[in-house]
Design brief:
Hypothetical Protein Aq_1857, Chain: A; 102 residues; globular; single chain; 1 helix; 4-stranded mixed sheet; mainly beta; 3-stranded mixed sheet
Length: 102
């Protein structure tokens, strides 16, 4: 199952509120395959009017989350987090059970 941390939920809600998209059922977070490399699959995140017919729709902490049904099984162990470290900040996707990850 996809999990999301409280800092990630808070940051996403802040962004969604700033874009005036709070009550839009078709607006949310898309998790997608951004690429494949020697360490495995890399996932990406995108906000917008992104729901498609083949999507699995999850409610992660009040955030509509869209995942293509084809890749949904591979996302079951990911954790979406928001981190601030010094001058940098951003979302990270961790996959704790990934056997090819270091």
């Amino acid at each position: 199952m996809v999990a999301i941390t409280k800092p990630a939920i808070n940051e996403l809600k802040t962004i969604i509120e700033a874009e005036n998209m709070v009550n839009r059922a078709d607006y949310g977070l898309r998790i997608y395959v951004a690429g494949i490399n020697d360490r495995g699959v890399t996932y990406g995140l995108e906000l917008g009017d992104l729901q498609r017919d083949r999507d699995v729709v999850l409610d992660l902490g009040g955030i509509n989350t869209f995942i293509d049904q084809k890749i949904e099984p591979s996302l079951r162990s990911i954790v979406i987090d928001f981190v601030e470290n010094g001058g940098s900040r951003g979302f990270v996707i961790n996959q704790p059970t990934c056997c090819n990850c270091s």
